[in-house]
What does this fold into?
Amino acid sequence: MAETDNLTESQEDYLEAIYHISRKKGAARAKDIAIRLSVRPSSVTGALRTLGAMKLINYAPYDLITLTDRGQAKAREIVRRHQALRHFFIHVLGIEEQKAETAACRMEHAVPTDIIERLIQYNRFVTTCPRGGITWNNGTGFSCRAGCDDPDCPRRTDL
It folds into this structure.
């Protein structure tokens, strides 16, 4: 599990859901969370009690749910891992968006923070390559994007 103080995958999913709902609506309701995660309202109640006891959310039955400062920091890290993986899959590996989203959702819980940091650095390198960037082309593998100004670049595809 990634470095999140031993939260379960499910708990991370709840924090991420609360984060996204709160950003959109200002706060979350149990019903919103149940819909977003496709779970029963009774499952949400148990998870919210646990996250409340962990001081990650402000929770009282039938009230709006918000993240504590600590919960906000944890949720931001979970979202950051998810976005880094998704970006890598789509923009570096050329994976279709829905497949990349599904894989990122699964992997965000397991990939350690130091590996995520290296992926982010690699993403930056690839997207700012002085030779025009690198991309994945199905069937041919990695190649420089159009705009590569090195005529001798063996990976250039626009010649």
The CA atoms of residues 30 and 145 lie 46 Å apart.
